[in-house]
Amino acid sequence: MMNRRALLGGAAAGGAAGAALLSGLNTARAQDGETVHVGSALPLSGAAAADGIEFRNGLELAVTEINAAGGILGRPVELHVEDTGDMGASNTSQAMQRLIDRYETPVIVNGYNVGTSMVEMDVAADNDVLFTHYNTVISHNTKFLEDPERYYGSFQGDPPELYYGLNLLPYLNSLIEAGAWTPENRKIALIPSANEYSIVIANAVRDKAAEYGWEVSLYETVPFPNNQWGPVLAKLRQDPPAVIAVTHFLPQDLAQFMQQFVPQPTRSLVYMQYGPSLPAFREIGGDAVKGVLYSTTVACLPDDYAKGFRDAYLAAFGANSSPMTGSQTYDGLWKWALSAAIAGGPGAPFDKEQAQKIAAVQRKLVFRGVNGVCHVDPEGQSAFSYPAQTPDPSLGMPHQFLQHQDLTVPPILVGPALYANGEFLTPPWLG
């Protein structure tokens, strides 16, 4: 018999540990076998398709494992996915509503969709379904706080993008203090693309730069998407900064930046975020991406705990797939499944009473998944960030700094130190 401490104390995890917990819950309940339909609205075509495919992969693997563990209280899970294409508020909200109308999905787990203004939260609220996403935007937190009672069922599975900016400057200074890097000057150039996510990150760096002893020498917004970096590179070469921070995130575009930068580089550390996690970044960029430093608020950790997931993911989806990305929706679905089982069942659209019970469990459940710990911050209902929001790694998702060093292996995790599997190396164009 599992007590409350076993269920809610410490941390629960997806994969083997989550399967064990589900198995224990399943044996204690009647098994009626009625299918639980789960939904996802993903960009399977368009500029973000590389991510969308990995998000679908993560969900498919989670469904396979959850069903192997007995489903949710004996009920098998079935996944339904709608393509959001070029994303945006209309495409995304319509895709979510179709999932609810056609399949009566009590939950929707998305990766990210750009340009939605978080309208997804309204769809979830209007239908009383649980909603988890990885848009990684502070606007989720802001909208939740405007009306917590209405948006009770909407969760952001990772910390918002604001922490890309807040965590970059102290990390740069830590490299200097450790003697790992000596900058040419104290100038930083910011290159966002024309979307909320990228601009919030760039603005966070801009607003805190002086506090950490840095000067913003260039702030240049580029189109979204963008693969023509010549005009920006010309400005960078006129006044070379110590750091070039590109806050655009599409992997194919970032790879093109490096292809166009390396033939005539400045003596600048190149920092990017999120996009270099995807195989497309290395496949397109080739040797030009060696030395790139990047970070992500959420990705599969290179630790022993996540090894089973990584192996299963690569076996299922091929050597060129990206468990670092698919891990997001994988953890998101696992956490919801555990919460639904603990709450007594998955519910259905418009079953507000049951949806509120599941949401209450999701808020309390400290979940150790393959991305680290998802612990819900009540001030916005997104994941706490470690170390920016909490000094306790058992209560926050690690903000990972990684570097592409050897293209025959995954990028090396160089920070935080508690999770690192390697050290920062001087990029070849600075050697």
Automatic annotation (TrEMBL):
SUPFAM superfamilies, per database record: Periplasmic binding protein-like I
Keywords: Amino-acid transport, Signal, Transport
Gene3D superfamilies registered for this protein in UniProt: 3.40.50.2300
CDD domains: PBP1_ABC_transporter_LIVBP-like (cd06268)
Domain of life: Bacteria
GO biological process, one term: amino acid transport
Domain called Leucine-binding protein: residue spans: 35-343
Annotated family: Belongs to the leucine-binding protein family.
Name of the protein: Amino acid/amide ABC transporter substrate-binding protein, HAAT family
Gene source species: Albimonas pacifica
Organism placement in taxonomy: Bacteria, Pseudomonadati, Pseudomonadota, Alphaproteobacteria, Rhodobacterales
